[in-house]
Amino acid sequence: MPPKYRTLPKLADWKEDYCDPQSRMFNKFCMLYKVDPPTMDRLRDDMQQDFTMAAICDLLSCNDQKISDAGAQIWLLFDLFQALQAWKKQRAQQVNLQKKHTSFQKRSPFLEGLEDIRAKAAANLYESVCHMLASRLVCTVNVLPTKLEQYFGKNLTQHGIDLDLKRMKAEYLDRVEANKFRLIFIKKKAYMLPWWDDKSDVTTDTAIKLELADTTHAHERTPDKSGFTARNEAFCVLGMSSQFYVAPHGPQPSGRQHYHSSYLSGENVLCAGSIVLEKGAVTYLSNKSGHYQPTPTHILHCLNALAANGLAHDDITIEVCLGNAPNITFPTVAAFKKWLAAGPSFNERATDIALSNIEMQKQSKARTHYWLQRHVKKIGE
Q1: Which of 61, 257, 263, 282 could staple 245 via S-S, CB 3.0–4.6 A?
Q2: What is the pLDDT of residues 171-203, one digit of tens each?
Q3: Average of pLDDT values for 325-346?
């Protein structure tokens, strides 16, 4: 069965499909189930707290502006892909909480009905976006994740390959250990587990409570602060599924080091750099990373991930690392985006990123093969 949308829907049409609180579909729903006016107002308030859906609408409004750059069109499709994935995950978490915890606050049955309509609309749009991306990247939907990593992610650089795969300096964390450094987003705030507290193990102690995210601890435990320019600046990584990890670099008991590559075991990332968090809010972002050396364009992935969780605002300082050239600092997101728009087209950016990733991937595979051969030979002896 072909996907519902052959092209991205107009924002007005999408609002009808997903039953926006101001749409005719919402009014029809309320009339059908005889929802009284006070309950309608509460439903509207609840639905307007869906920041991820708001981010999806913002992206579709960009499409209404008739983007001419082919690279920007693909980038927009990828942003939609990420936002829709985030919405699906949040929806699944909400359903699981309802099933597992009887003490969890019960939601209005009307709101559940509206969420079901939204879930169907989101699934249709997600399927369509996947097919559009596969068509643009000349691949099947099955291999789309690999293509997306090539075009939008960032592979380890030669520096990262040398440290991780040649000199074996990096300590790669398993998923359980890495998850204790993940940011959790709740009601427009970022939270983290208190991993800096040595009194208990945050990976196993279920009684430990989340705390508003603050990079004070990550900054203080970092031995080398020479590259930091912002107060309480700490290292961060954004994975391909838009998950943020925030923790200090530095030596570990194993004798190895924590780097940007540690949290995802050297896999591709959407961005790596540094961040400042104060009382759950983001005030600073950069793309400073020797292991990945993301382009300035990759910072957009961080901004889009924050928008999908309700943390987007203009008052974020952006520092752009340009390799050997002096860093450029922008006082607002708008200033950064204006500078980015004046540069090469997104088509050129996407092509350059893909070519760089493919070359680094070859070197990474060659180095991994070398170590495997040595390991097999040692076992044979």
Answers
A1: 263
A2: 999 988 899 899 999 888 999 988 887 766 666
A3: 91
Helix (H) or strand (E) holding 281: strand 281-286
Please, are residues 135 and 11 in contact by the beta-carbon 8 Å criterion?
Answer: no
* Residue whose tokens read 């992935």: 301
CA dist., res. 210 & res. 213, Å (int): 9
CA distances (Å), origin 279, targets 178, 209, 213, 245, 282: 22, 15, 6, 17, 9
Give the tens place of pLDDT for each residue, 79-118: 999 999 989 988 887 766 555 544 445 667 888 888 899 9
Structure token digits, residue 302: 């961080």
By three-state DSSP, how is residue 82 classified?
helix
Name the token pair of 366.
């060659």
For the chain, the straight-line distance linking the first and the last C-alpha, in angstroms and rounded, comes to 56
Please tell me the distance from the alpha carbon of residue 349 to that of residue 72, in angstroms, as a whole number: 9
